């Protein structure tokens, strides 16, 4: 073996960006499993989760991923997302844990009655903390990407959380050479982000290349929609009271991101396949999280939520 | 991004997108060089900034911006609230943008001196550094420092972005002077490839798409062209095969694999490999890449290897090509960048982490630190946050590694503080030290067990720690008398007494205290080896060193005794008049006054020095020892 002729793969091409991202993510999955006592993978049923699952399976082939998968169900997820989640879990034989903040649910917390902030704090952030504490998970693998938001661009691969899961931007650990520090004191934990360097476009290119199934909500269909504060809200059931003058219309829409349905705006689109989506992304200049009401709440809202322990 | 979806040819488009390669670079500059503006422009012009982020930036510009009512591109990249309020960039951020050719992942390192650690972190994975200079100011000390750090971290390609050319009337002589001055300096620090580009981040001249009309005298590349022409990941892909093992995998009795990412070179089925530190040899039977079983794999790929032999391989080992093996040693020389608020003290024990191996490590010798203004070596006894030093490091067991100049992954390590768990230092190995290999531990015929049996006792080390005046020496003295009366063979190592001889050359700085404790611990270990019951009376203020002492002894042999006397009581007693001197400012670094005492968290024995007289306390301690050691 001599230097110079070794930087190309066997098919004669340099390692592509997507191949490098794939391997870097697999590396992170393996590190987390080697270094943490009790890791878990967070799973929402969305496109990033679907890619995470694929990478997890590849990382531990021919074995199975040696960790359970956790879904925080706020009670307001799209029905199709829940159906898809259960179908995938059954087909792949995944150890799926579903957790809902039952105290919040008993109080009837929801986006329609309590607003986006309260709902997200209690049914998502608080619920996640409950589940991590209940099962004693010391590492939670999640699909956050640095391209999603300016605050996330400063995230580490191992995002350190102190007691009560708090994120302190000034106490994050440097990661030279991507050597991540997995030393924890009791009560501390990390969030691990294998998709840190991926973009939304990479996610779709990878879904295309690997033929990864995704929730049909990502593809255009006629859906019942109300227009509210400039967003297109698809009515998933009858729990959202209509405001005076609002009338549902059937519009050809799809989703770029899937959160709680009253808080997730759809986009008008005719994209019915993954290549259509890729083409649309190249032409579209609205960022992916633009459909999420919670992010625009106030300047810096993502930073405030992260400090409180949000993903 | 200028790529637009054509109405047909979607497969070619997808193939083009999937086939882009990836270049990582770090961008650095001083506070007012316009780094955020340049980065904001790269993101805008590559269409990486989306419309809704622009709207937010425009709103924020009016509130926090420095450009009146106009968009301040810096706000696209200065994201944390605390940064906006202070108008500075406080942490390392990662930006992603694309040209038609490739993906760029940019480490955005702040220019403040106190954030050297972020710059080093950003440079550690970079293929290239963009170093920003304000044309109107020229090369400043920070330019040299950033270039030096980039070079130290192994970055060999530099683009010198001479910004704000609009302010100096796009003057060629000014640009030439800056470029020449920098090239001369770059050669000195080992940066071989420098491309200087005159540009204006504010106007966009020579940045992305716009070739400047204002600088017809310049015929070199624009910034983007220079980035497109750079060599991506070249230092990783070439070289000898190295796979730091992440884990041995055995999902079923039939399958035994080794998982890891190839950090250099390539591997193919049938190839002979060796495993280090063990030196076992085998050959590759099968390679599982992310795409499935393959004939060969290259640097950057995360794979699982199946070997032809069932040899012992585990996390932390390095699989290598046998014609070029890594070094195996427990000592080496290294450059060290300190990242933690708590300074590096020689002889303190840290956790160390290599690509996948881990161990504990001590800096045995801080040879020098680097003066950040002159880049000249200086004498130093410790390394503070953001300081860089050259040192010798000893591990508690042998590890496989390469010199950093040959391999940036297998030649790197981080040090972790064992108490705060902070990532405290980033190190680059220069070469292995063979001292240990030349001095072999020689087992003697008469051993510790024989010597202990002869004395009819179990050796131990009773380590009394506490403030000055807590009563340690008095209790130790009484304890020794009691043991002696029972016929035990003892020796008392008293901190003050040892400073008359063995430790006469040491003062009371943190660094000297660490060395003081190390020497006493080593002597105690020898005396325990001689079969003695050793009593140590030493302030020993730091947890890390007491733990080091504990780790030196055999399990159960070390008895940590905390003589817990409140400082008020100690000060009132003041048997040597030292508190009075310290309060008067005549005595520096006095424990409890202007030097910290870290109380033990889990000592074997706590003696309340203010509540009982020394004789009773010695009696309690004696009783504990008799019940533990017979």
Q: What is the class of the largest domain in chain B in the CATH system?
A: Alpha Beta
- Pairing-aware structural class of the strands and helices of chain A? alpha/beta
- Domain count of chain B: the total is 4
Order of helices and strands of chain A: HEHEHEHHEEEHEEEEHH
Quaternary organisation: heterodimer
Biggest sheet of chain B: strands, sense, closure?
6 strands, mixed
**Spatial order of strands in the largest sheet of chain A:** 3-2-1-4-6-5
Helical percentage of chain B: 25-40%
CATH topology of the largest domain in chain B: Rossmann fold
Task: Tell the overall outline of chain A.
Answer: globular
Biggest interface, chains and residue tallies: A-B, 74 and 96 residues
Here the CATH topology of the largest domain in chain A equals Rossmann fold
CATH homologous superfamily grouping of the largest domain in chain B: P-loop containing nucleotide triphosphate hydrolases
Helix tally of chain B equals: 18
Q: Give the fraction of residues assigned to helices of chain A.
A: 25-40%
Q: What's the N-to-C terminus distance of chain A?
A: 45 Å
Distance between the amino and carboxyl termini of chain B: 78 Å
Low-confidence stretches of chain A: 1-8
Average pLDDT level of chain A: 86
Portion of residues in beta strands of chain A equals 5-15%
Please give a structural write-up.
The complex is a heterodimer of chains A (311) and B (630). In chain A, 34% of the residues lie in helices and 14% in strands. Chain A is α/β, with parallel strands linked by helices. Chain A folds into two domains: 17-201 and 302-307, Rossmann fold; 215-295, no CATH class. In chain A, the strands form two sheets. Chain A has a six-stranded mixed beta sheet with strand order 3-2-1-4-6-5. The model of chain A is unreliable at 1-8 (pLDDT under 50). By secondary structure, chain B is an alpha/beta fold. Chain B folds into four domains: 10-232, P-loop containing nucleotide triphosphate hydrolases (Rossmann fold, 3-Layer(aba) Sandwich); 236-320, Elongation Factor Tu (Ef-tu), domain 3 (Beta Barrel); 327-433, Elongation Factor Tu (Ef-tu), domain 3, CATH 2.40.30; 449-629, P-loop containing nucleotide triphosphate hydrolases (Rossmann fold, 3-Layer(aba) Sandwich), CATH 3.40.50.300. In chain B, strands 2-3-1-4-5-6 form a six-stranded mixed beta sheet, sandwiched between helices. Chain B has a six-stranded antiparallel β-barrel with strand order 7-8-14-11-10-15. Chain B has a six-stranded antiparallel beta barrel with strand order 16-20-18-17-21-22. In chain B, helix 12 (472-485) crosses helix 18 and helix 14 runs parallel beside helix 15 (543-552). In chain B, 49% of the residues are buried. Chains A and B meet through helix 1, helix 2, helix 6 and helix 7 of A and helix 1, helix 3, strand 2, strand 3 and helix 5 of B.
